[in-house]
């Protein structure tokens, strides 16, 4: 097809109804600027590229991006609420996401959110959102202490697979401590660790042994620290099977069951990612429009001189087209 497909971007609506005490709300500071607050605490400053399709499309044109997957900002997941309340929040944001994406036509590909703490309600909202126009779903990498091998979450993943809906997994709700609260360490160290832990849960928890091969699932931020440490994981599976050999096959047998995005910034890291996961399992992502994202989109792919032109085509759009089913 040509043109990059960016599988990792986020949106924030310019306003939403009052969600109740302690929940996210938006302070509008100007036509272009706003602040997300959670209760009384400032969470993140955002700009109109979060909600204005025109600004988003102009940035896409500047970077040669043909399509963007537009997913929720994880602070809106509402996994801490009772299921019915969270389902109501999901409906609000999912409908607002469709309004944000509508001016972009096929170029803006909306992914919904679901109340993952309640598998039945999550499946219901997934079906409703997809029928309304969403093309996939973004989920957090855990719900409290329940990781992706939780029985209820497996039920949801099976439903997504049976429905042909791609799943994008984003780390969130990282632990806080005096050590992690300095220097954005929750984002710089906590996020990669969270994603790594959940990939381990998918493998050792037997999720890939239980869900069909048709499940299309992608992990953000290059799979976190997992690709770099697959050798350690493999060694432990073989040498300490009495502790961790709970999956039907060794860890390396599952790397073709999931994808990762390319948000690793350095060609040396991308080489490790491609060597570990395989060219077919890596897709361009940017984390647009946030400051820790990549601009121009796909720069790390362009800078990677070890990639062939066919490799670049796979990373830039071929693999994403397969992931999205189009």
Automatic annotation (TrEMBL):
Domain named Amidohydrolase-related: residues: 5-325
Cellular compartments per GO CC: cytosol
Name of a matching Pfam family: Amidohydro_2
One GO-annotated biological process of the protein: secondary metabolic process
A GO molecular-function descriptor: aminocarboxymuconate-semialdehyde decarboxylase activity
InterPro entries to which the protein is assigned, alphabetical: ACMSD (IPR032465), Amidohydro-rel (IPR006680), Metal_Hydrolase (IPR032466)
Enzyme class: lyase
Pathway: Secondary metabolite metabolism; quinolate metabolism
Superkingdom: Bacteria
Keyword vocabulary terms for this entry: Decarboxylase, Lyase, Metal-binding, Zinc
Entry EC no(s): 4.1.1.45
Family membership: Belongs to the metallo-dependent hydrolases superfamily. ACMSD family.
Oligomer and partners: Monomer.
Protein's UniProt name: 2-amino-3-carboxymuconate-6-semialdehyde decarboxylase
Upper taxonomic lineage: Bacteria, Bacillati, Actinomycetota, Actinomycetes, Propionibacteriales
């Amino acid at each position: 097809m040509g043109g990059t497909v960016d599988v990792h971007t986020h949106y924030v609506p310019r306003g939403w109804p009052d969600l109740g005490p302690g929940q996210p709300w938006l302070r509008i500071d100007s036509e272009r600027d706003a602040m997300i607050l959670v209760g009384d605490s400032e969470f993140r400053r955002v700009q109109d590229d979060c909600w204005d399709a025109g600004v988003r499309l102009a940035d896409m044109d500047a970077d040669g991006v043909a399509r963007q997957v537009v997913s929720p900002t994880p602070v809106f997941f509402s996994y801490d609420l009772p299921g019915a309340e969270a389902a109501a929040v999901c409906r609000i944001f999912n409908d607002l996401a469709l309004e944000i994406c509508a001016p972009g036509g096929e170029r803006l590909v909306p992914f919904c959110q679901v109340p993952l703490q309640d598998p039945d309600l999550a499946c219901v909202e997934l079906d409703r959102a997809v029928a309304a126009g969403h093309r996939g779903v973004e989920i957090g990498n855990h719900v409290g202490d329940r990781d992706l091998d939780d029985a209820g979450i497996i039920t949801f993943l099976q439903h997504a697979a049976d429905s042909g809906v791609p799943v994008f997994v984003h780390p969130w709700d990282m632990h806080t401590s005096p050590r992690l609260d300095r220097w954005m360490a929750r984002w710089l160290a906590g996020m990669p660790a969270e994603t790594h832990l959940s990939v381990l849960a998918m493998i050792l928890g037997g999720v890939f042994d239980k869900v069909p091969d048709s499940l299309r699932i992608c992990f953000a931020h290059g799979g976190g620290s997992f690709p770099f440490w697959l050798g350690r994981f493999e060694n432990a599976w073989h040498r300490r099977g009495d502790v961790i050999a709970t999956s039907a096959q060794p860890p390396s047998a599952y790397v073709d069951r999931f994808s990762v995005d390319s948000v690793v910034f350095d060609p040396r890291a991308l080489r490790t990612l491609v060597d570990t996961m395989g060219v077919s399992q890596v897709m361009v992502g940017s984390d647009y429009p946030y400051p820790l994202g990549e601009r121009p989109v796909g720069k790390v792919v362009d800078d990677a001189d070890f990639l062939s032109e066919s490799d670049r085509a796979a990373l830039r759009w071929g693999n994403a087209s397969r992931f999205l089913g189009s």
